[in-house]
Write a structure and sequence with these properties.
Elements (H helix, E strand, L loop, with lengths): L3 E6 L4 H11 L3 E7 L6 H8 L5 E5 L5 H13 L7 E4 L14 H28 L5 E6 L12 H21 L4 E8 L5 H4 L5 H5 L11 H12 L10 E4 L14
Parallel strand pairs: 1-2, 1-4, 2-3, 4-5, 5-6, 6-7
Helix pairs in contact: 1-8, 3-4, 4-5
Bound molecules: nicotinamide-adenine-dinucleotide.
């Protein structure tokens, strides 16, 4: 059993799943909150072998009533108000801006940004009701918090907003003892990113100063550190977990 409760959105797979596991193995009970219920809580408990309890609940982070219902279900299960919230769920649509449908644009922004707002607001409201202190939120950003990538206009717009939302939320939630930070992963190998190109690792490793792609555990370890006591005075910050990839500027070869 863990001593703190963490909710991780989009944690049925990929980076979110690794974060949930790392938290469950480091003194947290974990709620896996996802739109899709691929694996059950008992599956995760069996395969992870962590001490923390694991719960799987369905949520659409872009839907206000679904988000409220998630926190109601947590209460109904007899769990405490969560200590930690990881806003990890996101969606991505590839294609030229001129061909993008309004539906794709709206869906990307409503999952990636409105979802982060709704989850953050509900988490902070519930914590206020019980006068809880010492909370931590981590929002999942990207290299495109700062840099534009082609054919991803909606996604990069949403990730740019993640960083400013992180700062704005940290200003307002600090008085409740809630720290709000952002992790910006670089090229991380997941089932999703592997399906984007024939050889994901060979494409991105040469561009990355540490000469490899990231693993989901690289990101998960940074999240565990960021929500921990050693980072107790860090708020409103974005930490890149990218092996140096997006610190590189565009620079003429002649130099
Ligand atoms: N993989 C990378 O290289 C990379 C790089 C930079 C940033 N990121 C960010 O890291 C996070 C996780 O990335 P990933 O590659 O693991 O993604 P992924 O697509 O593999 O997983 C996303 C998860 O979110 C869930 N989800 C989608 N819409 C949802 C909704 N409306 N409500 C609840 N859950 C929903 C999906 O079911 C899925 O389980 C995202 O925020 C992504 O933008 C990833």
């Amino acid at each position: 059993m863990g001593s703190r409760l963490a909710v991780v959105t989009g944690a049925q797979r990929g980076i979110g799943q690794a974060i949930a596991r790392a938290l469950a193995c480091s003194e947290h009970d974990v709620v896996i909150a996802d739109l899709h219920a691929q694996n059950s809580a008992s599956w995760f408990r069996e395969h992870w072998g962590c001490r923390g309890r694991v719960y799987c609940l369905k949520v659409d982070v872009s839907d206000e009533s679904s988000v409220c219902s998630l926190f109601d279900q947590i209460q109904t299960l007899g769990l405490p108000v969560p200590d930690v919230l990881i806003n990890n769920a996101a969606t991505q649509v590839w294609g030229p801006l001129v061909d993008m449908s309004l539906d794709d644009w709206n869906r990307t922004l409503s999952v990636n940004i409105t979802g982060m707002f709704l989850m953050t607001r509900e988490y902070a409201r519930r914590r206020r009701e019980v006068s809880a202190t010492q909370g931590a939120i981590v929002n999942m950003g990207s290299g495109c918090n700062h840099l534009a990538f082609p054919n991803l206009a909606a996604y990069v717009s949403s990730k740019g907003a993640v960083e400013m939302f992180t700062k704005a939320a940290s200003l307002e939630l600090g008085e409740q003892g809630i720290r709000v930070n952002c992790i910006a992963p670089g090229a991380i190998e997941t089932d999703r990113t592997q399906s984007e190109t024939d050889n994901y690792a060979d494409s991105w490793s040469p561009l990355t100063p540490l000469n490899r792609v990231g693993t989901v555990n690289d990101v998960a370890k940074a999240v565990v550190a960021l929500v921990g006591e050693n980072m107790g005075f860090v708020s409103g910050e974005t930490i890149r977990v990218d092996g140096g990839l997006f610190g590189r500027s565009v620079w003429p070869e002649a130099y």
